[in-house]
Amino acid sequence: MTVAAETPVHRSRRRRSRLRQWTRASVPYLLILPAIAVITAILGYPLYKLVVLSFQQYGLPELIQRTGVWIGFDNYASVLRDDVFWDTLLRTVIFTVATVGLTIGLGTLIAFLLTRVSSWVRVLLTAGLVLAWSMPAVVAVQVWFWMTNLQNGILNHVLTEAGVGDFAQHDWYETSFSKLAMVSLLIVWDAIPFVTITVYAGLAQVPRELVEAAEIDGAGSLRIFRDVTYPILKPIFLILTSLSIIWDFGVFTQPYLLIGASQVDPSNYLMGVYVFIEAFGQSDFGRGAAISLLMLLIVAILSVFYVRRMVKMGDVR
Amino acid sequence: MNVRAFAAAVLVAALAVAAVGATGASGGKTADTLTVWLQVDAQSGWPEVVAAANAQFKAQNPGWDVDVQYQTWNTHLSKFDATLAGNSAPDVIEMGNTEMTKYMAAGAFQDLTANTFPNKSTWLAGLAKSGQYGGKIYGVPYYAGSRVITYRTDLFRAVNGKIPTSVAEFSALARKLGAKNKEKSFSPVYIAGTDWYFAMSFVYDYGGTIAVTNKGKWIGTLDRPKAVAGLTAFKRFYDAASRASKTTDEVRPNPYDVYAQGNAASIQGPAWFSCCVGDFKNRTAQFVMPSRTKGQPIPGFLGGSDLAVPIGANKAQAAAWISAFTDNASMTALRAKGNIPNTTSLLGTSVNERAAKRSWFVPTAKHWVNVENGNVLRTMLSRILTNKMSVKDAAEVASDNITFTLNQR
């Protein structure tokens, strides 16, 4: 049909259908508009304030007067020139890699274990996992420290009684490495349930016949995991890994409380603790804002890699 | 929505949340409720004094209520900062005397110069000075305390131990106590490894200092020979006397808890520690920590607290509550608990007051509290005690750090 041949009726019908199409297409956007408005209000505005703060000299006197002094990139320059920042960054990256690796590795193994055990063991195990998951971090830290402290910790007692060695008065928090190792273990313990339950749910989607076919063809469990299970679960692993990275990179509660406010120092800072001490311990809020924005940038760069992988990956379904 | 798009959306949201973080401000003012921040010391040591002050205040200010919120030393300043930003600061706040300068300089408190308080003319000079800045009064002295040795009379008697009159005698006694009580978790003198208040007493006993001023600039001095000798003596005494963790502080665990569990023959700390010794109440006494010089007390840290009124608070009511909390009845009760009262008119000759005869105080620099918050001295002590660094090297690192911190803009 050519334009010249169109009758008015045709034209109006087409216009109406175009309108309807447009309306239909815009409905989803209209529906998410309230959500976007709320997110902008509660996340966008603080983020904007944070950016403004990072360009200001904003210490205790400014906090009380409520007026920052604009100093351009001085906060960023002083942070980037600070050895403590780079040491802390490197330490945090290593800490994050180790913690995320342990979390995903152990969580996946337990998920596989769940598929192999009898149903009542599975229920018990899942209940235990959910309990561990629901334990507030602050409470977990207290219990953990109580179990591992030097003066009367039950861990030292049990290890000594079990004949592992003489652990009486053993200080699990003596070196920076051991302090952070204890923090890492606590976080792994806390994070495993989420990984296990998610992977276990994902495993239900792996078609039974694919696994059976592979078994018949003589593939071992490792081979089946690599070539059958893992490709199907890949999106789940990607999202679990990237979420874990974001959480562990900026973790604050566990390291600050377990190491203790009076023991955190530049030799055991993680980024979350470092930004807290700079901003609140030293009352230099502008500098703290600059550090937290740099942290955001680093995590964003780390995550872009994963997001791109996810976008590139074909639709699994 | 497919898996990828959903995952990407979750990631973006998580990132945004991670960036913004969360700072919650507690406290808050409602009309006719006076919010008071005291340290937990009052909660465990003298809750009845607080209750009496509240009752007196409420009787004098009908319709007013008091909300006492107990804070811990390690966290109260960052919480206070958050409430200053959120316009919800408490009406009265207890500040450590080492913490006052930074906040007075920043203009965080209301001027109390014109207000009248009990015993204002006889306030303890040293403590009153910590609440004054630029000729104005911002802090009302609350109480002071020196640190003493709280000990088990039965355990001391079992080794024929007399009250030591020098550090050398005390070390020898500690070795005897250790030989008699072989339990590995038992400390003849429980001292937390990073208790810098105690360690610095040795520094001052040997004639050292933490920092001095020269032409308006601060210089860290812990790496000078006298201070190093003091730190070395501290390490020697610690090794002879304490089985505490070399990396822990004096609140985790509380020394009096260790003592109450029977794991220490003596503990070092504020005189009010005798409050919480459990079943050993009748077998507990106190003496003054001796110096290296026979017959002298060691210079002790004169700790103390001031009560201040943050900007934006109800000044009249806050001052009225402070008056009730620091009157003669309160001070007499605080003294009975083993504290040094805020007025010379009530001073006596308790163990605490004798210990206060030789004392030292932190450098009165605007940024001193940043040295405390950065755990500079604690880090130095754990490095020394765990032999990760020599005394001299650890002291040099700490000293450079102190010079840098105190001279910041």
Describe this structure in words.
The complex is a heterodimer of chains A (317) and B (409). Chain A has 13 helices and two strands; from the N terminus they run H-E-H-E-H-H-H-H-H-H-H-H-H-H-H. Chain A is flat and about 95 Å long. Chain A has 317 residues and is mainly alpha-helical. The model of chain A has no long low-confidence stretch (mean pLDDT 88). Chain B is α/β, with parallel strands linked by helices and 409 residues long. Chain B folds into two domains: 33-146 and 303-360, D-Maltodextrin-Binding Protein, domain 2; 147-301 and 367-406, Periplasmic binding protein-like II (D-Maltodextrin-Binding Protein, domain 2). Chain B has helices spanning 3-20, 40-45, 47-60, 76-85, 100-106, 125-129, 153-158, 167-180, 196-205, 225-241, 255-260, 315-325, 328-336, 351-355, 368-373, 376-385, 391-406, and strands at residues 33-39, 65-71, 92-96, 132-133, 136-137, 139-145, 147-152, 211-214, 217-220, 266-270, 284-287, 300-301, 303-308, 359-360. A five-stranded mixed beta sheet of chain B has the order 2-1-3-13-6. A three-stranded antiparallel beta sheet of chain B has the order 10-7-11. Chain B has a two-stranded antiparallel ribbon with strand order 4-5. Chain B is globular. Residues 19-29 of chain B have low confidence and may be disordered. Chains A and B meet through helix 1, helix 2, helix 10, helix 12 and helix 13 of A and helix 1, helix 4, helix 5 and helix 16 of B.
